[in-house]
Specification:
single chain; about 240 residues; alpha+beta; three-stranded antiparallel β-sheet; 7 helices
């Protein structure tokens, strides 16, 4: 579709040309009284002046449209929304395993790819795990096999913290890792470990005697999927 200034310019030129032609048709006597060549030259001159007038009118119209467009009120740009979630997080996670599965946490900063992992597992392989159903066995509290692999993930509940609260929570996780030397399937197990972290953060905590996947999903449901955590001033 043609724009307004070009279309109005063409209309003006057509009108001017028609006016000149009508002058020659309405006054035929005058046309015969002058030299035909002079009349033709004057006709061409008038057409050229008409072109100049149309060009000037088109330019003025274009400038006016541009000025109007530039002066039109612009919708105020919305300020960049600052995330209320905070730059730090704790992610309660569950994954598959050879038996019931495993529950653990990721924690770190959202702007960094590296994460820290904390969880409670029996130190070693099959034998400590079997014995851990009968007695306490030595434990490990860092990343275990599969904790960093997304294909094994079965449940996740991530909550965000501001920097002061994150420092307190991360310090508590480190302290819990250092003070959890043993593992037992019934008492000091992986779900009770991450439950202690959740409880420190002020979250409602489900009972620990359930599969890790169910535990993490219950933790999320009991807290209505709450994503932002603020520690109390007493912590």
């Amino acid at each position: 579709m043609e724009n307004g200034p070009k279309r109005s310019g063409r209309c003006l030129l057509a009108g001017l040309t028609l006016t000149v032609l009508l002058q020659y048709e309405i006054h035929p006597a005058s046309a015969r009284e002058i030299d035909p060549r002079a009349g033709l030259e004057r006709f061409i001159s008038q057409i050229q002046e008409g072109y100049r007038d149309v060009a000037n009118a088109t330019a003025v119209s274009s400038n006016a449209a541009s000025t109007e467009s530039n002066s039109a009120p612009q919708s105020p740009s919305k300020p960049a929304s600052r995330s209320a979630k905070g730059p730090y997080y704790v992610d309660f996670r569950a994954r598959t395993a050879a038996s019931w599965g495993h529950a653990f946490v990721w924690f770190g900063k959202t702007s960094e790819r590296a994460v820290e992992v904390a969880g409670l597992t029996p130190a070693g392989d099959t034998v400590p795990y079997v014995l851990g159903h009968l007695m306490w066995v030595p434990s490990e509290t860092t990343a275990s096999y599969g904790d960093l692999d997304p294909q094994y993930l079965t449940a996740s509940y991530r909550v965000y913290l501001n920097e002061p609260d994150a420092k307190k929570v991360f310090a508590y996780i480190k302290k819990l890792q250092a003070s959890s030397p043993v593992w037992n399937a019934e008492t000091t197990n992986c779900t009770s470990f991450i439950g202690s972290i959740a409880e420190f953060m002020g979250l409602k905590v489900p009972h620990r005697w359930q599969r890790p996947e169910n535990y993490v999903n219950s933790l999320k449901a009991m807290n209505d999927g709450r994503q932002v955590i603020r520690l109390s001033s007493e912590q």
